[in-house]
Specification:
It contains twelve helices and two strands; from the N terminus they run ααααααβαααααβα. By secondary structure, it is an all-alpha fold. A two-stranded antiparallel sheet has the order 1-2.
Length: 356
Amino acid sequence: MGMKGAAAYAGMVMAEFAQVGLMIASKAAISSGMPNLVFILYSNTLASLILLPSCLLFHRSPRPQLTFSLLSGFFLLALLGFFAQIFGYAGIQYSSATLGTAMLNLVPGFTFILAIIFRMERLDWRGSSIAKSMGTVVSIAGAFIVTFYKGSPILMTPSPSNFPDQLFLSQQSNWVFGGLLLAADCVMSSAWLILQASILKKYPAELIINFYYCFFVAIQSAAASLIMERGPGAWSLKPSTRFIAVMYSGVFGYVFQVGAITWCVHQKGPVFVAMFKPVGIVVAVAMGVIFLGDTFYMGSLIGATVIVIGFYSVMWGKAKEEKIDEDIGVRSLESTSQKAPLLQNYIEGPSLPKQN
């Protein structure tokens, strides 16, 4: 594994930790009464202000030329990301950060399906391809288990009073609705990865793409917030929980995490990036239960385990295909090197004896 390969693995692990932190920060801000749209607006505005000088510093000369087609692509990328954030934060609000992280493990499956549709991945009847396909189906099945089956609580914080049955049924219904919203978030996130990979082929400047993404999301969320949020209390950064959550999401959630993902998509492709989503499960469970009082249910454990099995099946198939492609490349190179001397003799012709 080369330096870039090792950096891509390390970058994605850190990005997943940042993703878990972002989910917990957003859950805390939204629980304090901060609307989703305002949270998205503040976070992306802060990220844009940080990224603008970085773009001017690192892409001074030569700077890739921007066209209307590219700007339209950036706007569409931001729109997908905007809807992904809306669905994701709403899903967390109705369920928990733990469920949100577990459901993100659907992203590898959806990304793989979209990559096949857009011919970024190939599908044949070899063992590696079957493993990727079956892994995708298993991951989706695991997500359904997490969403529709709660089961008995495994880890929970003590409750001050017993909830009536009606409230429990309401929570169960919200849990399912939250899971469906999180599934929509996964579809949008997968489409976002595919579109980003396509844009990076035409415009390989990660920081500039990241800046325009956050900038356009800020504009879209501002327009939606001005229509939907009229009360002055919705725009307040008090209590301090809101301010800290916005600062964290702007710096670590969008500048660092989205930047790391964009770089890794450029280096390794969208399927590679999507395969790291299961890394955050353990971290999300621990932090959600400790800091947010989330309850961890048996259904989440079973579903997350099924999703991880599907994930590693996809990852094994992907690694197998890369190994096959590598072996084919080596054999092709050896064949070329063996034929080169014969071809050279043919072109130069037979050597003539020296004349005295």
